[in-house]
Design brief:
alpha/beta, eight-stranded mixed sheet, two-stranded parallel sheet, 49% helix, 19% strand, globular
């Protein structure tokens, strides 16, 4: 995939893994609609961009659990940049005390965003094709008794990815679908794990055993996946590098 001039939407794109994705795409010459619920963090991110890429980034406040917010993000991206080539569904929460909200943000919002992406980019809908990348997790293909709801949503994201990332959908739409499973990255989600899982004491032990993966590795991995990945691919990016699973 040649990135120069291509337009991406990145949800949860102002901090953590999403910021790494947004930065990597901008550095490759892409244009990014940074979607995030936190305006202050997004403003800090965009204002700190280098002058040579600053004009290629816009911010759209977006709660992915609100369908109209999601749809507005697609409209704004196309209105500002004239096209849409890539949707990165990255926004997520981990809070085992908020069962419904976790499912809404981590799964239902991803499903709705995929539907919008097919509407806006699909060849069969008058679009030019494109790519969708969904952020799952290492928890998306393993069990984690400390965060079962979060884990289930990330399993579901992989199921969505493999199902939409099929020849059936690709032939109709011209859209490739991938998923990235990060290891433990130094983000607010991972930092707050011990307070949001079902057992803080066990959560502290669990987090203490895991090696950290730099967020920048996820940005590099996104570019590599878009360049080399086969439709429907799921890749894990952790301390062991970039590996298909």
């Amino acid at each position: 995939m040649a990135f120069k001039g291509k337009v991406a939407i990145v949800t949860g794109g102002a901090r953590g893994i999403g910021r790494a994705y947004s930065t990597a795409l901008l550095n490759e010459g892409g244009k990014v609609c940074v979607c995030d619920i936190n305006e202050d963090i997004a403003e800090e991110f965009l204002s700190g961009l280098s002058e040579n890429v600053k004009g290629n980034a816009i911010f759209q406040k977006c709660d992915v659990a609100v369908y109209n917010d999601l749809k507005d993000a697609f409209e704004i991206a196309v209105r500002n940049f004239g096209r849409l080539d890539l949707v990165v569904n990255n926004a997520a929460i981990l809070d085992e005390s908020k069962l419904v909200k976790t499912i809404e943000v981590n799964f239902i919002a991803v499903a709705k965003s995929i539907h919008l992406a097919f509407q806006y980019m699909g060849l069969d809908k008058g679009g030019k094709g494109g790519s969708i990348v969904n952020t799952s997790s290492i928890a998306g293909h393993t069990a984690n008794p400390l965060c079962p709801i979060y884990t289930a949503t990330k399993h579901a994201v992989i199921g969505l990815t493999k199902s939409y990332g099929s020849d059936y959908h690709l032939k109709k739409s011209g859209i490739k679908v991938y998923a990235i499973c990060p290891g433990q990255v130094n983000t607010p989600l991972c930092q707050d794990f011990i307070y949001r899982c079902i057992d803080a004491e066990e959560g502290k032990k669990y987090v203490g055993k895991l090696p950290w993966t730099p967020a920048e590795d996820l940005g590099k991995g996104l570019i590599k996946l878009l360049e080399d990945g086969k439709n429907g691919s799921v890749v894990q990016i952790d301390e062991n590098g970039f590996n298909y699973v």
